[in-house]
Amino acid sequence: MSFERWQGRSPLEAFPVSIGLLGACAILFVATDLAFPDGRGEAIKMWGMNMQTGFSHGEVWRPVTAMFLHGGFLHILLNMYALWQLCPSLERTIGSARFAAIYFGAGIAGSLASIAFEPASLGASGAICGIMATFLRFERVRLGSFRAVLRDPVGSQFFVWLFINIAFGFTIARVSNAGHIGGILGGWAVSAAVVPALAGRDRGRLSSKPSLLKSILFFAALAALGAAAARPAWSSAWRVQAAAEAAIAGDESRAFELVEAARKAPLAREPEWVFEAGISAQKAEKNRVAEALYELADERGMRHPALGNNHAMMIEKRGDERALLAHLRKWRERGVELEDWQAQLRELEAREARGELQR
Q: Which of 230, 245, 266 is where one domain is finished?
């Protein structure tokens, strides 16, 4: 899309919301780098990353602020490219107010869906998926059926792009499928409310008058999703984060209950979330809880040396040499070298041969 003039208007006049969204995301991306030169991770958390634990403790702005934050250059590049390709066209077609309603409605729905099932997320992709869903819905109204949309060279592209976004969630670590699906459903629902389809003789056309009933139903559904996201008891990922928080607050019995509950249910995301919760507990010197979380991450298939090292530190601190030896041997059998522990492994094996190990 080139910077031409539309009906005598500049891009800023023709689609101001799209320009504002792109500019805000770019400015915040640079700002998070400047604020924390060693890594934007802490800045992102402080400035509004989607976090289950934060939202459940009343930080209700996070589903909105997370839409403007991105984790890396490729992340923001892909999202801003999609935003620039899709959003100005939609904004010029339906107007800035209705476009903003769809973008933010889809983005918030995606954010809430994400934190209902995952510990943390960020990015504009939920809102962008909602914009894609809006275009798909418009094509569905225009052509009359999804089958016709699939045969249409324009409409079929939106199916393809939505499929690619969902596929990313199954193939790339920490891509939020819940956020994408929530954004798709949210975008479809908001567009149906603010740009409803006409019936009867006008079938196949869109109305310029919003539907009050559909708007009320969308806000009711969004409120219900927000209530569920505030305490997602079904999410094992939420449980392990809450376990670390309970340990830090001094309630270790509650922390162990949450770890056991997480152990009995499938994790929504990869075991790295459990490992990070263990690090939080370890930093607070809640070693027993940290060890339980590291053990759970191990059970769920994490094989990074950092897990083996941290877990070994927790076992060593409680003074169980037999458990430490078993742990180090297990990692050696996996073919993962814990370099910092090789000398101690040899010493423990020598002491075992002499019958000197302590429990």
A: 230
267's tokens: 């994790």
Q: Roughly how many angstroms between the first and final C-alpha of the chain, as a whole number?
A: 69
Does some domain include residue 359?
A: no
Q: Among 215, 230, 245, where does a domain finish?
A: 230
The number of domains in the chain is 2
Q: Does 1 map to a domain? A: no
φ and ψ of 296, to 5 deg: -65, -40
Domain span at residue 336? Answer: 236-353
- 257 shares a domain with 288: yes
In a domain, 2, yes or no: no
Sort 156 into a burial class: Cβ within 10 Å, 0-12 / 13-18 / 19+: middle
Does 180 lie in the same domain as 98? yes
Query: Please, which residues have CB within 8 angstroms of residue 34's CB and are 6 or more apart in sequence?
Result: none
Instruction: Determine the pLDDT at residue 237.
Output: 67
State residue 189's pLDDT score: 92
Residue in this structure with the two tokens 């690619």, named with its chain if needed: 164
CA distance 276 to 74: 23
pLDDT score recorded for residue 226: 75
Residues of the chain with pLDDT under 70: 1-9, 36-42, 173, 198-204, 228-238, 265-270, 358-359
Q: Nearest 5°: phi and psi at 150?
A: -65, -30
Sign of CA pseudo-dihedral 348, 349, 355, 359: positive
Q: Which amino acid is at 37?
A: P
Longest Cα–Cα distance of the chain, Å, equals 93
For the CA atoms of 147, 150, 153, 156, the dihedral, rounded to the nearest 10 degrees, stands at 140
Name 6's bridge partners.
9
